[in-house]
């Protein structure tokens, strides 16, 4: 069915209110989910509320805690989410990160002890709107085997980057899992009884498999072989021990049964081109524009362009398409 | 033949002295090449001198200029190499980068207008020895087509990361091209008249090819499809316009015929775990050790381990194996 963006927002707020979330956490979560849904980033849209409430019911999401700034010195900020949603931590940490990046040229935000269920592009778009370059990484649960191995030592570990462009609504921005495919894709193949593509998973014996059910008993593979594995391992270290938070393996061990959303950390680095470039900023920015425009001229789609198009379309008409069953399922989350 | 490390070092110094290099630039280049050669990182070892001298002869390497610190404020340092070797810029920039990272927690070094012919792990190992986490990126020449396109808009754009470990000689460190294979590999296949593996190159018409000669007329591909392409594009922006230096395309256009070594920039980010972690540093570091040790226990080789083994072996015996023809070729570079 078609639902107005406003109605969907009200539904999300109603669910979170009925579950005892504080208003600021409710707003942070709602804004994130609606932003993703309006952009037709379905994997991180409102259906995530189903998982989020499961985490809440299992005691792995604190609806009323307030994130605390635990470190704020030099170019480093740390925010302890106290098991609230990562977005709530961003609301407190991002303004400080922006301030420090503009002061020192580069700064780092560690978001600790958060429940993570969202796309990273949302917070990086916020940085790009402030004309900052951004990098973000987070761990998840250890479902991915390193290249050359069979033991799942890595999470799906997303990696995201944003570069502000002349059109503030269309930065150069990517955000992808470092696994060869999304875990949700494998689950979808299992449900539809269809075969997996090659090179995305191994079975419990470490043999390559196209059978989604065998894959779920085995492990996923990293994208790009040993190179993707190396990047994913970097993410484990950067969003894990570097900020004194959990690796994907530790997060999985900490998860209570049925609480599927990772509990752990996120690291965000912001860089201010203005400080680096000074009076050369305009010409350098223009060269970047000219460079990126060549991709479009050569009919190569830049990351996120499909998403931008969807957002423009949905914002203009004020409504979005949503599966009837999903809306019904969401409504059952309201506790009277 | 076997040659002692000392003899090889003397040969390199003799070549550079005979070509009019200043002593500090000579030492910076020599140290880098010997370090790579001793580690059996052949692709970045002493054979690179052949290309380096070609660049010199074409007027695209300044043997006597002195890199200048052009920006040194907050957490950002910029060093203008004035068309000297990147290593010379590191000698001046890295101590400042280390100082700033330890002061602010994170810092950024931009090396501009350098001739780049070396592996990035050398400078990152230097950071790791100071217990810093490091990231490095540089552009090259535009030989790589983005996923979904045929026009070579990307360089082979290496990406490197280092994480200090308990054994200071064996950090977690990777350094790889974001192209599916090295350009030198394709040239080697052409010379040996052997076929390329799948998914590494396209011909001049944009069709996948296994023929190395067709590949050299066409374009290389990025590793990991659209994800590797996105990372390579990030590197173009970070090591190019962000630090007001050339993209791979611009560097290629600026290259005089026969001068194959890229002229452009490198970006290095250093992070001090001690500032982020404070009193938790030791326990967090130990968790990282335990985590990485699981790879080894599962018989998964970590990046650079082969290189570390070679270095230990060669240092112990004080000699390295080097091709006779290569030594003869190097000797012809000495100008009497």
TrEMBL record, chains A, B:
Oxidoreductase recorded as keyword: yes
From the record, what ranges are coiled-coil? none
Q: Does the keyword Translocase apply?
A: no
Where on the tree of life does the source sit, at the highest rank? Answer: Bacteria
The alphabetical list of record keywords is: Oxidoreductase
SUPFAM superfamilies, alphabetized: L-sulfolactate dehydrogenase-like
Q: Known Gene3D superfamilies for this protein?
A: 1.10.1530.10, Hypothetical oxidoreductase yiak, domain 2
> Which family does the similarity line name?
Belongs to the LDH2/MDH2 oxidoreductase family.
Q: What is this protein called?
A: Bifunctional delta(1)-pyrroline-2-carboxylate/delta(1)-piperideine-2-car boxylate reductase
**Highest lineage ranks of the organism?**
Bacteria, Pseudomonadati, Pseudomonadota, Gammaproteobacteria, Cardiobacteriales
């Amino acid at each position: 069915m078609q639902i107005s963006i406003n109605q969907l927002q009200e539904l999300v707020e109603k669910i979170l209110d009925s579950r005892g979330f504080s208003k600021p956490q409710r707003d942070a979560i709602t804004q994130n989910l609606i932003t993703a849904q309006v952009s037709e980033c379905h994997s991180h849209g409102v259906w995530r509320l189903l998982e989020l409430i499961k985490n809440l019911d299992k005691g792995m999401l604190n609806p009323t805690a307030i994130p605390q700034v635990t470190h704020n010195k030099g170019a480093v900020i740390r925010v302890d989410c106290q098991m609230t949603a990562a977005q709530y931590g961003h609301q407190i940490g991002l303004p400080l990160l922006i301030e420090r990046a503009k002061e020192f040229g580069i700064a780092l935000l560690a978001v600790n002890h958060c429940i993570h269920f969202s796309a990273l592009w949302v917070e990086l778009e916020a940085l790009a709107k402030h004309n900052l370059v951004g990098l973000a990484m987070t761990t998840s649960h250890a479902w991915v085997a390193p290249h050359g191995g069979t033991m799942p030592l890595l999470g799906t570990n997303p990696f995201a980057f944003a570069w502000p462009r002349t059109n503030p609504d269309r930065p150069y921005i990517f955000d992808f899992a470092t696994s060869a495919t999304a875990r949700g894709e494998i689950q979808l193949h299992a449900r539809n009884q269809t075969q997996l593509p090659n090179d995305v998973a191994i079975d419990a014996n470490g043999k390559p498999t196209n059978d989604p059910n065998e894959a779920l008993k085995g492990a996923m593979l990293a994208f790009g072989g040993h190179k993707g594995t190396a990047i994913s391992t970097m993410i484990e270290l950067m969003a894990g021990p570097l900020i004194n938070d959990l690796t994907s393996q530790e997060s999985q061990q900490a998860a209570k049964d049925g609480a599927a959303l990772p509990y752990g950390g996120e690291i965000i680095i912001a860089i201010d081109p203005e400080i680096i470039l000074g009076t050369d900023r305009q010409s350098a920015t223009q060269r970047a524009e000219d460079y990126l425009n060549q991709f479009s001229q050569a009919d190569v789609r830049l990351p996120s362009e499909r998403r931008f198009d969807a957002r423009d379309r949905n914002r203009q008409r004020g409504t979005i398409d949503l599966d009837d069953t999903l809306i019904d399922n969401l409504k059952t989350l309201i506790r009277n």
